[in-house]
Amino acid sequence: MASGVTYAHYDVPAARGTAHAHVLTVDLRDPRVGVDLLYPGAVAARATVSRMADTAGAVAGVNGDFFNITETQHPGVEATGASVGPAVAKGHALKAAVPNGQRFGPALPPGTSTRDVVGVGADRRARIGELTLFGSVRTPEGRLPLGGLNQYALPVGSVGAFTVDWGGASRVRATCGTDTDRAAPCSTDTYEVTVRGGRVVSASDRPGSGPIARGTTVLVGREEGAQRLRRLSAGEEVTVRHRLTASPSRIPYRFALGGYPLLRDGRPLPGLDDTTSAVRTAVGLADGGRRLLLFALDGAAEYRSGLTIAEVAQAMRESGAVDAFSLDGGGSTTLVARAPGATAVSVRNNPSGGAERPVPNGIGVFSKR
Question: What are phi and psi of 216, to 5 degrees?
Answer without folding.
Answer: -110, 140
